[in-house]
Automatic annotation (TrEMBL):
Organism lineage: Eukaryota, Metazoa, Cnidaria, Anthozoa, Hexacorallia
Record-given protein name: ATP-dependent DNA helicase
EC annotation from Swiss-Prot or TrEMBL: 5.6.2.3
GO MF annotations in UniProt: 5'-3' DNA helicase activity; ATP binding; hydrolase activity
Keywords: ATP-binding, DNA damage, DNA recombination, DNA repair, Helicase, Hydrolase, Nucleotide-binding
Length: 255
């Protein structure tokens, strides 16, 4: 079903055929099933002379750390690493290991050694003592991290309702057939003055997807947001269009 659905989408097929190289980042988070599905889709849409070759003869570059986050198992996917696929051995014939630390201070060998152990599931007495030494009171507000979008939404809603101030609600507006369309906006925006917000699309060079701020209020049907080192930003209602499906979706920005 997945292969047939992808092969029925003209925009998907055209992009696959236009590419001659596949660069697969964060490969550790993709499962054996996903790896084999992408290969099957390439077979389905390839020209006859390439249809039986792995990934339709495209060059495949796999990038990632398999000891970090792994694929999440589900009903139709056991979450096995992609390198367990027999296809992986045939396609990925050259392997390169990058050993130079780029993010950590090379002088802090205690921290580096702890990271090396933990990535292998090891915690020596020295590493345990080092981690215990980091126990301290945090400055500022703590950030709660969840693994699913629903958990995040429930937490944010609970925190929002506990805040003082008037609740501002705006509904998204769908036009024509929007079935299956993925969009960064929710169907209903709930917000209060002084609530923390995060931009989920690129507004300007300084205010982009992931930029955090605090809602000041609503002015002239626009959300007024205070962004650190940027100042006041006014966010208007945005519209997302999907031309290939001959439909559009008008949504409230998440601002």
């Amino acid at each position: 079903m997945v292969v047939a659905r992808a092969a029925s989408m003209p925009h998907c097929v055209s992009r696959i055929k236009a590419a001659d190289t596949i660069i697969w980042d964060e490969a550790g988070m993709s499962s054996r099933r996903i790896f084999e599905l992408v290969n099957a889709i390439h077979h389905e849409v390839a020209e006859e002379e390439e249809a039986n070759k792995p990934f339709a003869s495209k060059q495949v570059i796999i990038v990632g750390e398999f000891l970090q986050l792994r694929a999440v198992p589900g009903t139709f996917d056991d979450g096995e690493f992609m390198f367990y696929s027999k296809l992986f051995e045939k396609v990925i014939t050259h392997r390169f290991e990058l050993k130079t630390m780029m993010r950590q201070n090379l002088a802090d060998q205690t921290f580096i050694n702890a990271l090396k152990e933990l990535r292998l599931g090891i915690c020596s007495a020295e590493t345990e003592a080092f981690l215990e030494s980091l126990n301290r009171d945090l400055e500022g507000e703590a950030v709660d991290i969840y693994f699913t979008k629903l958990s995040v939404q429930l937490h944010n809603q609970e925190a929002l309702f506990k805040m003082p101030g008037e609740l501002i609600a705006s509904d998204a507006i769908d036009e024509e057939n929007v079935t299956g369309i993925s969009c960064p906006a929710d169907m209903k925006l709930l917000i209060k003055p002084n609530a923390k917000v995060m931009i989920v699309w690129n507004v300007s060079e300084k205010v982009k997807n992931g930029t955090a701020g605090k809602l000041v209020g609503v002015k002239d049907d626009k959300l007024e947001v205070e962004v650190e080192k940027v100042g006041r930003v006014f966010l208007k209602r945005e519209t997302w269009y999907v031309y290939l499906y001959i439909c559009s979706q008008r949504l409230i920005d998440q601002g």
